[in-house]
Give the backbone structure.
Amino acid sequence: MKIYLNLDSKVDAFAFKKDHVRELEGVFPGLETVRVHKTSELGSGLADADFVATWRFPADFYGQAPRLKAVFTPAAGREYVDADPNGRVPVFYGTFHGILMAESLLSMMLYFNRKMEFLIDNKGRRLWSREGLSECRSLMVQRALIVGYGNIGRACARALSALGCSVTGVRRTPSPSDTNKRVRKVVRFEEMGPFLERADQVVLALPGGEQTAKIFTRDHFARMKRSAYLYNLGRGSCYLEEDLIWAIETGRIAGAGLDVFAEEPLPETSKLWDLPNVFIMPHASAIYDDYMDLFLAEMMGKLQSLISEAR
């Protein structure tokens, strides 16, 4: 059997390295690995591919791959790897991002919650001051609302509940199994109003697509507590940037920790760069050295089952 690997990236953490290839070959000695460096190069070699691991895979590639049994991608989003139009070949999208992104969420949340900007500024000025720190409230007495309670949202809930934070989840179709010791309640988007009004921390972990575009409106910002913070780890299309800017400029919310934006890179002309109480990450909440290790472990687990089935 043969697996094609098209996993180069300009971001070092997102690149499949020689050590990863050696580990894959060590676990599956009968699996031939073929590395390619461009999507076009991948397309020309699919005739003998049994498996593909890639960042990009357009729908028309499936017709060129009669032996293909599965496509793997580290990406959580569906934008770059299309599903098989005929439903013959399964696509396994990455589900490991949550544990990484939850740490990024906590870093932004604690930055605001513990007034780190104040402390960093004082260090630069060599100023020993405790002014304002008595206003800090522990996360263990706060409420968090996670809008988009999927793999990433659940990982964020685990991290927040471990600190004692009271967590409510929001998803399109809640199920009884969603509610557990980490989450007090999971509600539909249309039902979240009262929970939004009481939340101290509002986390958006929504996927992209037409169903979530502009779903979080100015009215939602207006219903938030003035002391509440918003965090976006999902997609920048879920609200209008001007509505977020309005909410911060008018003091409707206390601030925002943002990893994703409607336009990326965020233009230098964006007001978000200059607004106080805005923390900006360059779509980097999952960039960790561990990224590809986690993907490889997830992929090998699925490969083991698929290869056994094929035999």
Remarks:
- The mean pLDDT is 96.
- DSSP finds nine helices and twelve strands in the chain.
- The domain at 2-94+289-310 is CATH 3.40.50.720 (Rossmann fold).
